[in-house]
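Handout, section B. The chain below has 124 residues.
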Amino acid sequence: MKLVVLITSRLEGGLEVAQGWQEGGAPGVTVLRSQGIHNLQKAVQRGDIELPRVVGSMAAAMAALIDNMEQNGLIALSVVDDTLVDQLVKLAQDALGDLYQQDNGILFVIPIERAYGVTSHRGE
């Protein structure tokens, strides 16, 4: 079994990937909203958002920003059989484009030694 993880700043594209994974046979897909630190820093530098004036550190300022801003990124997670990994990668690349191109996202696969509670949705 493998854990397939997609991280992208493209919310709609990420949701398209998650739905494609589910339709492609992934027994479950978990989606988390996210905010990348790089995009947050760029927004501050452009002046799109303003740092709080009274903070103890840059980390505290960024935490305050994250608490008050819309999260536009997405993390999709799915635990799948090894045989599904290539299909999920293809579905992600079909939706987001070449993952080696900047701003499309990153995807990685982690081996899982044991998993509990993972079932198949086939035959439902």
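Note. Residues 37-70 form one domain. Compare this with the example in section A.
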